[in-house]
Amino acid sequence: MSDTPDSAVPTVRAYVEQHRAAFLDDLAEWLRIPSVSAQPVHAPDVRRSAEWLAMKLKETGFPVAEVWETPGAPAVFAEWPSGDEDAPTVLVYGHHDVQPAAREDGWDTDPFEPVIRENRLHARGAADDKGQVFFHTLGVRAHLALTGRTAPAVNLKLLVEGEEESGSPHFRALVEEHRARLAADVVIVSDTGMWSETTPTVCTGMRGLADCEIDLYGPDQDIHSGSFGGAVPNPATVAARLVAALHDEDERVTIPGFYDNIAELTDAERELIAELPFDEASWLATAASHGTLGEAGYSTLERVWARPTAEVNGIGGGYQGPGGKTIIPSSAHLKLSFRLVAGQDPDKIEAAVRDWVAARVPAGIRHEITFGAATRPCLTPLDHPALKAVVRSMSRAFDGAKIRFTREGGSGPAADLQDVLAAPVLFLGISVPSDGWHSPNEKVELDLLLKGVETTAHLWGDLSAVLR
Amino acid sequence: MSDTPDSAVPTVRAYVEQHRAAFLDDLAEWLRIPSVSAQPVHAPDVRRSAEWLAMKLKETGFPVAEVWETPGAPAVFAEWPSGDEDAPTVLVYGHHDVQPAAREDGWDTDPFEPVIRENRLHARGAADDKGQVFFHTLGVRAHLALTGRTAPAVNLKLLVEGEEESGSPHFRALVEEHRARLAADVVIVSDTGMWSETTPTVCTGMRGLADCEIDLYGPDQDIHSGSFGGAVPNPATVAARLVAALHDEDERVTIPGFYDNIAELTDAERELIAELPFDEASWLATAASHGTLGEAGYSTLERVWARPTAEVNGIGGGYQGPGGKTIIPSSAHLKLSFRLVAGQDPDKIEAAVRDWVAARVPAGIRHEITFGAATRPCLTPLDHPALKAVVRSMSRAFDGAKIRFTREGGSGPAADLQDVLAAPVLFLGISVPSDGWHSPNEKVELDLLLKGVETTAHLWGDLSAVLR
């Protein structure tokens, strides 16, 4: 378990250098396909992107590479069995669809005509997520070159969906449908990033999500606030009181049972987070916010990575036009979302929210609550052998650098893989915050992209050893 | 001061009966003019209504009857000096514009073709407010007939505005412009109603109104609730917390100083309110509400008539469309209004609200507060001699019935007259809740309309005596 390069490192690096040009040419070809899942006009491009990837994976050596249909955009599945009888199985997740992009949004060049400037590859999807899917193709070839094998040391599977940028509406059903073929000992998600170019990190978890709409109905129509004000319950007031009651003075969520069984941060985890070179001013700039506010006793990073939240995403009721209108509104509406951390069960949270709301709505107000589909949180224990293997492999690729740990505050389809396949989820991403996901001039750092290749070249052998 | 009819009653009643047919014909002619101030297409009709009224007031005997221009719809001013050197001056207020009305809204007959059914005159404006303005024309003639005078016992002035149904946007300026000509010892507002056909009442006050919009600004744009949720202030949460903090658990307004100097209900006033035949179920039906809620320690009528309130008329922030959107909104907006009672100063309330909000908005949220023009509360002391005169006159018209007291929870231009003219405001209205103000099939009860005539026939002489 070394932090220093070993003899494998120069071997891998030489192989990668030798195939760098062809690899980048192929990636550029893929990036030219505008696979924008959100825009119906690009539906044929999303399909073309899937077909291109399946073809390229076959060319890479995957004996199986299929386009999987969904009610929406197609996904790609590929499989390369190890051949070793007791080899563990690894499923890599990514997506081949991209965010919308147009030159006039502020791009310096055509978003679908990749260009390399200052060792950066600029194109929509360069980092999110085509670049990070594609490093696995050269990665597995480098792994074979390093080990002299004809098949990977693990049963390697890839699932590359085509609707991630549209909220993965059919992803869970797809995973459930193909549960048997997707079965894996560990899932590696390549759709996240690192702290920065100079601070390589591994993400160890994402928060879950439960969200609901609460509709509150008072008078049968808007009524005169002079004639009736002060004597009947106002649904907008009730909505506001629910939101206000969500938190106590320490900004802790007050719903009974909300914090039950959650995985509290250990001292070691808090120390690891505190070691990161966090700068509040630049974080606030990224957040476009003008102040911090959150649960007492936790730092900003702890709050967004490791603590559950209750947020109001939308509130509305009564008159919202210009000027005043002296009414008591007939209804008010709330959109609430709860970010969840390991240990929280979305079903229990939903039940707790329903009870809590029902107990707080006064007589004379009728309410309805509608929950959306929940996403579970996922968290990799820091002592998980597979995580240690990822860290070792990454450290080799990064010239012995210390690999630190981050988390994601958001929620994603990784949780569906964790749930349906009952497999731990790990994250391997080499993107950095400056890559501009969803923004004009998205890019990927070529040095980091190739370190992704190197990492996987080391990883499959190491994982094969620790997961047996 | 008698509750029983005296010899004047049969005299007045005979006079009214004699002129009833011509009076109703004239009123019907006025009601045929669709003076809808809210609809630009009816602007010529509103002007025609003013000109018709001025003509009719001259015909009635008023030496002065003028159409007064405003930047919007014209008002009518009329004056009939008493001739007695020390006669007090009374200004009657009403309005000649009406709410929109169309047959297809549910009217049984054309809203601008008056029809009498079962002793009720149906037409838009029959009760609100043409009928209640017009009873003053026959009323002053009956007063002259009763007293044998050639001019009223008071200097009688009428101000009949043309924009009440559009919020009286130019009324205060009009009153200020003509302050000298409008000067009066007492103002009589004929634009309210009574408790019911069987419970004649006098309104003794209206609540005031202060309203504001509060804009709260957080992140520069909507931001991702996963990436940033739990760590930055959410303006929608801040808006909700302001609304929730407006009241304590007794539904009392918490803003410091809010209740300072208010005219508390006396035991006698509370008893008078409690004597009214209040039925909560029918009140709730009128309110279209499904429950009562208000300041602890007060009845529903006390809450809407005599207690100040803070209500949210509108709230909005973040995503309000279908489904969910996991954002922290960049802004949120509140419309608050405060109903005020006697003793409260709108300027002090505004200052108190501004201080209270500023102290509650957290770092990282910017806020702006905009107040509209305030309306002061008005309240007639129960022992005011002019109020006693109104009660006596009304009791005569109502065959010796006990006259009880109500208030109005709403706010109106009466307060502008009180403020600008520094005169007490009294209310004389004979409309009842079933008259359907602003609704289809608006009507006025002919028996009550003529009791309005009778009341004023008695009133001017009595007022002249008590106000000298």
From TrEMBL, chains A, B:
Keyword Hydrolase part of the UniProt annotation: yes
Keywords: Dipeptidase, Hydrolase, Metal-binding, Protease
InterPro entries listed in its UniProt record: Cyt/Met_Dipeptidase (IPR051458), Peptidase_M20 (IPR002933), Peptidase_M20_dimer (IPR011650)
SUPFAM superfamilies in UniProt: Zn-dependent exopeptidases
EC number: 3.4.13.-
Residue ranges constituting the Peptidase M20 dimerisation domain according to the UniProt record: 205-362
MF GO annotations: dipeptidase activity
NCBIfam families hit by this protein: PRK07907.1 (NF005914), PRK08201.1 (NF006053), PRK09104.1 (NF006579)
Name listed for the protein in its UniProt record: Dipeptidase
